[in-house]
């Protein structure tokens, strides 16, 4: 299928500068032999090459980096090669450049070669050869000579002019670079050698902020390489086609528009066998688990490549890429403190901001199989060769984190466990408990045999895809930290035994209302002496002071972020969230056994009556809280008088 040339070209025209930062590469003897078979008068050295220019005595030395441009632009070059294959057939079916020009610009063109194409490919072919704006501004295939009239431009001149429009390279350097890339397009063996040996030297092949866009780029490129038809089967009556464990990964359509909002609108391929366009499903890369699964499916089609998410960006790059020294010094650490002290915030946006994270949440029903993974039933689809049920290992967050850490030793990977003590943590970790002992580099002091052989098989399958040595025993690498949050005041907590706690470091987050991120939203409180406004930090501290005097432990006090800035966006929102969240916590959790009247008025015997009274504007706090509010807040009449004086 001839995809839209400008779309693929703009993948590279819009590439940020970081995508063009190449390391110097060293050519071994195998690479030299392969590259010296290019259709160039070329001699390849360890870090460069010399090209003699035919027709004169000129020559040019080119750096090894030039070869990486050829590798980077492979999707565009593959698509252009398909265009040129069709062009040569059309050229052979017409008598001259004049006739070709008339055909291309005709309002009702007819040609046996073009008529045999699918409609999408046919329309794209005409677009590219009719207008330079549809070929990135590259040259016309027809060269208008003042003396000889319309003549065909050489294939390499036409193709190179388009390739160079996609590159951020000045004209002074572009001619030989274009010739090199064109020569690779005509020698698949040399191109494959280049890809096999030096893909890891590219920062990445594709990069996008949209996971769907990235997958579209990958599958379209695989289609250009002729590697998608094998996934589709041969039944033209099927509309949806699965891929591995992914149900309905592909949609077949008679038109080049999917017509289904669950699938990407543009086609990635046209199957001549099925006489249908192929569309890829949206959302297939939305989770870490699905990224691992897709990487495994893509690996046989595009070896030693992986899909990696980093922050808001998602990359397709070499799975053996290392952009720096191995990361060392990972740790096991638990952050604990009162609810709302910012434990998760500390992990995600402060201390481990730049690390890549896999996040899970423990709850009372969390088991070892949830954390590590387990065999689960998988219904085979017709296109998978059989029908019925089989079992596949579905990895848990620990297994996914371990695979990612082993595949990317230069990256700090953090497995984040929220609310670790809401589950029986030692039981959830199982035999992994032993791995928590770490040496000075941060890796496991001891390795253990996997209790579940299916888990180890899955891990090694993934590592094999990434080009990483397989594991014989389980370990935690030096770049995999395990971080957790804990609130010991939670009613559902389970104790951590001493042996388990010994393998962790702990950091207590104190209650700190001086944090600039804490909102100073005004809260309106009715007391026996009238209505007062008080800032949220002062109200929370006042309640904490009373709770401390009552004997409430520190981990049950109110943290500065117990109510979020979003919940405290204004006074009206604050009133609602105090009633629905803060009051419930105080009544049901903190004061359950001490009695609510330490904080709330003794006039209210049930939470329901208290809640209604507060919403209606009545005084609901105890006299101790009212005194704090009146001392630290401002009476509404006073505030209004001050505002009038300022006016």
Descriptive overview:
α19 packs antiparallel against α22 and α20 runs antiparallel to α21. This protein has a five-stranded parallel β-sheet. A four-stranded antiparallel β-sheet has the order 7-8-10-9. Strands 1-2-3 form a three-stranded antiparallel β-sheet. The chain is 38% helix and 18% strand. It has 23 helices and 22 strands. The chain has four domains: 197 residues, no CATH class; 113 residues, no CATH class; 177 residues, 3-Layer(aba) Sandwich (Rossmann fold); 125 residues, no CATH class. The protein has 647 residues and is of the alpha+beta class.
List keywords for this structure.
38% helix, four-stranded antiparallel β-sheet, Methyl-DNA_Rec/Restrict_Enz, Rossmann fold, five-stranded parallel β-sheet
């Amino acid at each position: 299928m001839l995809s839209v040339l400008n779309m693929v070209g703009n993948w590279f025209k819009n590439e940020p500068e970081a995508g063009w930062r190449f390391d110097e590469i060293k050519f071994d003897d195998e690479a030299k032999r392969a590259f010296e078979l290019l259709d160039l008068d070329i001699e390849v050295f360890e870090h460069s090459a010399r090209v003699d220019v035919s027709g004169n005595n000129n020559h040019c030395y080119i750096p090894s980096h030039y070869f990486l441009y050829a590798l980077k632009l492979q999707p565009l070059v593959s698509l252009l090669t398909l265009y040129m294959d069709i062009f040569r057939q059309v050229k052979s079916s017409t008598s001259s450049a004049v006739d070709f020009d008339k055909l291309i610009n005709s309002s009702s063109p007819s040609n046996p070669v073009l008529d045999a194409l699918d409609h999408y490919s046919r329309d794209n072919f005409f677009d590219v050869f009719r207008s330079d704006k549809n070929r990135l501004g590259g040259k016309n295939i027809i060269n208008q000579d003042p003396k000889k009239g319309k003549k065909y431009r050489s294939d390499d001149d036409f193709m190179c002019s388009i390739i160079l429009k996609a590159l951020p390279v000045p004209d002074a350097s572009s001619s030989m670079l274009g010739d090199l890339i064109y020569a690779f397009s005509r020698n698949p063996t040399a191109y494959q050698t280049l890809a096999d040996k030096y893909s890891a030297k590219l920062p990445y092949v594709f990069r996008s902020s949209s996971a769907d866009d990235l997958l579209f780029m990958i599958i379209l490129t695989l289609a250009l390489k002729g590697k998608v038809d094998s996934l589709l089967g041969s039944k033209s009556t099927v509309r949806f086609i699965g891929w591995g464990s992914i149900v309905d990964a592909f949609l077949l359509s008679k038109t080049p528009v999917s017509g289904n909002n669950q699938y990407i609108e543009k086609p990635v391929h046209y199957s001549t066998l099925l006489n249908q366009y192929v569309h890829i499903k949206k959302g297939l890369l939305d989770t870490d688990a699905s990224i691992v699964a897709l990487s495994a499916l893509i690996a046989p089609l595009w070896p030693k490549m992986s899909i990696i998410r980093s922050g808001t960006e998602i990359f397709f790059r070499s799975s053996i890429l290392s952009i720096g020294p191995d990361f060392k010094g990972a740790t096991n650490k638990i952050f604990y403190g009162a609810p709302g002290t910012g434990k998760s915030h500390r992990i995600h946006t402060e201390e481990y901001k730049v690390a890549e994270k896999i996040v899970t949440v423990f709850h009372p029903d969390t088991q070892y199989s949830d954390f590590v993974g387990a065999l689960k039933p998988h219904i085979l689809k017709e296109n998978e060769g059989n029908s019925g049920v089989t079992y596949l290992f579905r990895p848990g967050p620990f297994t996914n984190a371990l695979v990612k850490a082993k595949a990317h030793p230069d990256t700090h990977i953090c497995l984040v466990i929220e609310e670790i003590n809401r589950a029986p943590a030692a039981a959830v970790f199982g035999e992994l408990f032993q791995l928590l002992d770490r040496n000075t580099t941060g890796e496991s002091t001891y390795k253990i045999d996997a209790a579940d052989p299916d888990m180890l098989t899955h891990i090694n399958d993934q590592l094999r895809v990434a080009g990483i040595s397989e594991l014989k025993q389980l370990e935690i690498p030096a770049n995999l930290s395990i971080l957790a949050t804990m609130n010991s005041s939670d009613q559902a907590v389970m104790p951590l035994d001493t042996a388990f706690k010994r393998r962790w470091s702990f950091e207590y987050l104190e209650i700190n209302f001086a944090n600039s991120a804490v909102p100073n939203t005004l809260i309106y409180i009715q007391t026996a002496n009238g209505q007062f406004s008080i800032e949220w930090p002062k109200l929370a501290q006042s309640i904490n002071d009373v709770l401390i005097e009552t004997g409430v432990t520190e981990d049950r006090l109110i943290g500065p972020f117990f109510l979020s800035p979003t919940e405290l966006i204004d006074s009206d929102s604050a009133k609602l969230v105090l009633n629905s969240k803060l009051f419930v916590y105080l009544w049901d959790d903190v004061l359950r056994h001490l009695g609510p009247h330490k904080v709330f008025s003794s006039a209210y015997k049930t939470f329901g009556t208290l809640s209604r009274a507060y919403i209606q504007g009545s005084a609901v706090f105890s006299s101790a809280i009212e005194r704090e509010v009146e001392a630290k807040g401002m009476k509404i009449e006073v505030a209004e008088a001050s505002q009038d004086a300022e006016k």
